[in-house]
């Protein structure tokens, strides 16, 4: 019997893929750091039974129309704003993502970004390496305290809760806003549910972990930054499109808020010409929330398991719909 075909849109470690290579015919885009060009993807998907994709691949009606055998699209991310779920449903294609395996790693990074931004770690590193440390001064690179401050978590899903657990360890007061109340976070972590407006007005650290949807598009806009404290620090580990970047640049430039730590941007990759890159009070990193070696390996395995499950009839482990 002919093997079913899987197309993978990035070059991945052969060792992780090897266990599946006996069962399926696997083709892979050859580059690790460049997305597969759209025309090649449209061609490849024609014969694929399973597609292993990532955020840089747009899975829409046009692409799904090109496929006659496709049964599953497996996204290497927990977020799936790159996939048109209605189109997938229409074409009878199961969409899967990678929840749970990346929760703690992404929360670690969120907290690392918060700490780096509050305590000016990146500036301090630059300062010492460019030989500026000639003297000690009482307020040299003085940042903001983290312990006992108020953190406001926007989006209290799995990652939001994992951030709240870390915040509790720092004796922080925890506010959250979410579509629905989270009794466990309220009981176990003493997180207080508040409106979005109250959260952005009262929190010292505002952390966005909210998925990107039409409702969350640019929720962090001029009006939102206006309501924040002048000492507020904004952290975004969700999606860049939840933020009006022009408004954020303005708020940082005019010190309406103190600083921002950003793992995600409206257009990725962002270039060093972007005004955010000129600001000392913006710590910017290239969408590495879940990028630990251990977690990326688990994510890739889960993606492969999801495809294998659908293709061999046992079902996906983590289907989105
Ligand atoms: C992805 C992410 O791993 O899971 C998500 O939603 O944003 C990251 O963890 C990364 O974008 C690669 O697709």
UniProtKB/TrEMBL annotation:
Recorded coiled-coil stretches: none
Cellular component aspect of the GO annotation: cytosol
Every D-isomer specific 2-hydroxyacid dehydrogenase NAD-binding domain range: 111-289
Entry-linked SUPFAM superfamilies: Formate/glycerate dehydrogenase catalytic domain-like, NAD(P)-binding Rossmann-fold domains
Domain spans labelled D-isomer specific 2-hydroxyacid dehydrogenase catalytic: 7-319
Signal sequence bounds: none
Name of the protein described by the UniProt record: D-glycerate dehydrogenase
Phylogenetic classification of the source organism: Bacteria, Bacillati, Bacillota, Bacilli, Bacillales
Protein family per UniProt: Belongs to the D-isomer specific 2-hydroxyacid dehydrogenase family.
């Amino acid at each position: 019997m002919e093997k079913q075909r899987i197309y993978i849109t990035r070059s991945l470690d052969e060792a992780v893929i090897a266990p599946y290579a006996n069962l399926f015919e696997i083709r892979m885009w050859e580059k690790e750091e460049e997305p597969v060009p759209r025309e090649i993807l449209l061609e490849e998907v024609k014969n694929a039974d399973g597609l292993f994709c990532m955020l840089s691949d747009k899975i829409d009606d046009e692409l799904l129309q090109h496929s006659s055998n496709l049964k599953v699209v497996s996204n290497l991310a927990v977020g799936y704003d790159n996939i048109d779920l209605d189109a997938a449903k229409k074409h009878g294609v199961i969409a899967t993502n990678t929840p749970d395996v990346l929760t703690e790693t992404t929360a670690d990074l969120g907290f690392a970004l918060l700490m780096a931004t509050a305590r000016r770690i990146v500036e301090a590193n630059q300062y010492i390496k460019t030989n500026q440390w000639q003297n000690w001064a009482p307020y040299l690179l003085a940042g903001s305290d983290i312990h006992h401050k108020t953190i406001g978590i926007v989006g209290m899903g799995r990652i939001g809760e994992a951030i709240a657990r870390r915040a509790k360890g720092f004796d922080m007061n925890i506010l959250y806003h979410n579509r629905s109340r989270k009794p466990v976070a309220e009981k176990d972590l003493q997180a207080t549910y508040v409106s979005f407006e109250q959260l952005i007005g009262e929190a010292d650290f505002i952390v966005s972990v909210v998925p990107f949807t039409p409702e969350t598009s640019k929720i962090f806009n001029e009006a939102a930054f206006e309501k924040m404290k002048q000492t507020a620090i904004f952290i975004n580990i969700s999606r860049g499109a939840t933020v009006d970047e022009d408004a954020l640049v303005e708020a940082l430039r005019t010190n309406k808020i103190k600083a921002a730590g950003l793992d995600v941007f409206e257009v990725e990759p962002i270039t060093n010409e972007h005004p955010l890159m000129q600001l000392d009070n913006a710590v910017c990193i290239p969408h590495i929330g879940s990028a630990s070696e251990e977690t990326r390996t688990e994510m890739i395995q889960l993606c492969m398991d999801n495809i294998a499950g659908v293709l061999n009839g046992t079902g996906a482990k983590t289907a989105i719909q």
